[in-house]
Design goal:
With 123 residues, the chain is mainly β. Helix content is 0%, strand content 45%. The chain contains no helices and eleven strands. Strands 2, 4, 5, 6, 9, 10 and 11 form a seven-stranded mixed β-sheet that branches. Strands 1-3-8-7 form a four-stranded antiparallel β-sheet, with no helix packed on it. The chain is globular, with a radius of gyration of 13 Å.
Length: 123
């Protein structure tokens, strides 16, 4: 069973930056970032393929967020710039089954989930 641990959440003001980390107990999994705000459905934010060659972003974060990975350290990062109040949510990282290497922004494609980390953007 793969274990995922998110970290790096916190409180920031609009326009500031924050970087989230997802530490995995195994290597070379396709990883996605998802978020959920109170009273709203979970939405896909970004994902990266098992080797990092392909990435995708939701339209709402395109141009502001950057996903990357360090396979030697089994860690995936989400750099969030120009943060907006609507980015406030609990952010989760998730992994696909090991035989699936491609990146897709669909939560049904992921089977391993972290505990989440809170991101709050407010003045």
């Amino acid at each position: 069973q793969l274990q995922l641990v998110e970290s790096g959440g916190g409180l920031v003001q609009p326009g500031e930056s924050l970087t989230l980390s997802c530490a995995a107990s195994g290597r070379n999994y396709a990883i996605g970032w998802f978020r959920q705000a109170p009273g709203k459905e979970r939405e896909g934010v970004s994902c990266i393929s098992s080797r990092g060659g392909n990435t995708y972003y939701a339209d709402s974060v395109k141009g502001r967020f950057t996903i990357s990975r360090d396979n030697a350290n089994n860690t995936v990062y989400l750099q969030m710039d120009s943060l907006k109040p609507e980015d406030t949510a609990i952010y989760y990282c998730a992994a696909r089954k090991p035989q699936f290497n491609l990146c897709v922004l669909r939560d049904q494609a992921y089977v391993y989930w972290g505990q989440g980390t809170q991101v709050t953007v407010s003045s």
